[in-house]
Amino acid sequence: LEPTCFESSEDIGGVWRYTDSTDNGRVSVYRSVITNTSKEMSCFSDFPFPEDFPSYLPHSLVLEYFRMYARHFDLLQHVRFQTTVLSVRRRPDFTSSGQWEVVTETEGVRESHIFDAVMVCTGHYQEPYLPLASFPGIESRFKGQQLHSREYRDVEAFRGKRVLVVGIGNTGGDLSVELSHVAAKVFLSTRSNTWVMSRVSDHGFPCDMVGTTRFNHLLEWLLPSALTRRIRFRKFNSWFNHTNYGLASSKSSKFKMIINEELPFCLLSGTVVLKPNVKEFTESSAVFEDGTTEENIDVVLFATGYNFSFPFLEESVRSTIDDNRSLYKCIFPPQLEKPTLAIIGLIQLTGSIMVGSEMQARWVTGVFAG
């Protein structure tokens, strides 16, 4: 197989290539981000992280790893930078050839290419998910600032302010903790049961090294789900009782897990205040579903995630991709006559997306090669 990679920006790294700017449309991680998965469980199978790298990495070292990988395998010769993909369409003879016509633009010049197969590797951190309709008053009455976590870079703009963070995923937890160091007050609004884990597990080992084992997966497969949940909840509560903190109850079967070492202390010290879902906004306050109100809110920061978006795919293909459950093995659109289009990375894993994407890519290249 002979690969050609089109990259819209001027360099590799994707979201891990940090930028201070939020105006160029490219999503990047925030300045203080640290990986939630360890280097031991996140490396590509043919290229381990350097031994002198720490187990959990800042964005600069993740980017350096990608550069080392690209140099080692001489990958940049296959990449065309500053090239935007405008459309990906089936050729008229697709039912027999499986080929695709790809239209790109580089410095204002459009080109058309014919490919035997296409892998879409744009990820799902492109289009912010902002459910403003679920928060009456946020657009019509609220006078303060509102923004999505995509626009967040560091704490300076929030110094001395009263901040409401909406959403308690990994990003919402991280930003709440970081903002608590400089903000006058931070409120964290959540509507889901959330279990908080530490990156550091038994005897100081990374938690994913301890938890992600064949033996543990075998136990989950053999034991009843109610029992495995009970074991898991007991393990989580051995660090601190989540019910006492208002985070999660072991009676609920619906829950999410986040990684955050500092959030429990912030809740205990009152620098972050946990609140339920927002019912509505007034000019300067937030009214919550439990009837409480927090006044003088300066900023509402939505850590509500992203929508996946593939605007370049032809409509007949794009409209069938509701989420990865509509894809065969979370990769292939099943309605196509030929398996020559693959969506890589549209998955949520308990471990590293890098490892999962590699496994997907290895299988897809085998399918493409016949």
UniProtKB/TrEMBL annotation:
The keyword Nucleus does not apply. Its EC number is 1.14.13.148, 1.14.13.8. The keyword DNA-binding does not apply. It is a single-pass membrane protein. Its main location: endoplasmic reticulum. It catalyses: N,N-dimethylaniline + NADPH + O2 + H(+) = N,N-dimethylaniline N-oxide + NADP(+) + H2O; trimethylamine + NADPH + O2 = trimethylamine N-oxide + NADP(+) + H2O; hypotaurine + NADH + O2 + H(+) = taurine + NAD(+) + H2O; hypotaurine + NADPH + O2 + H(+) = taurine + NADP(+) + H2O. Its cofactor is FAD. One of its GO terms (molecular function) is flavin adenine dinucleotide binding. Keywords: Endoplasmic reticulum, FAD, Flavoprotein, Membrane, Monooxygenase, NADP, Oxidoreductase, Transmembrane, Transmembrane helix. It is an enzyme of class 1 (oxidoreductase). It is found in: Endoplasmic reticulum membrane. One of its GO terms (cellular component) is endoplasmic reticulum membrane. It comes from the Eukaryota. Broad spectrum monooxygenase that catalyzes the oxygenation of a wide variety of nitrogen- and sulfur-containing compounds including xenobiotics. Catalyzes the S-oxygenation of hypotaurine to produce taurine, an organic osmolyte involved in cell volume regulation as well as a variety of cytoprotective and developmental processes. Belongs to the FMO family. This is Flavin-containing monooxygenase 1. It comes from Oxylabes madagascariensis (white-throated Oxylabes).
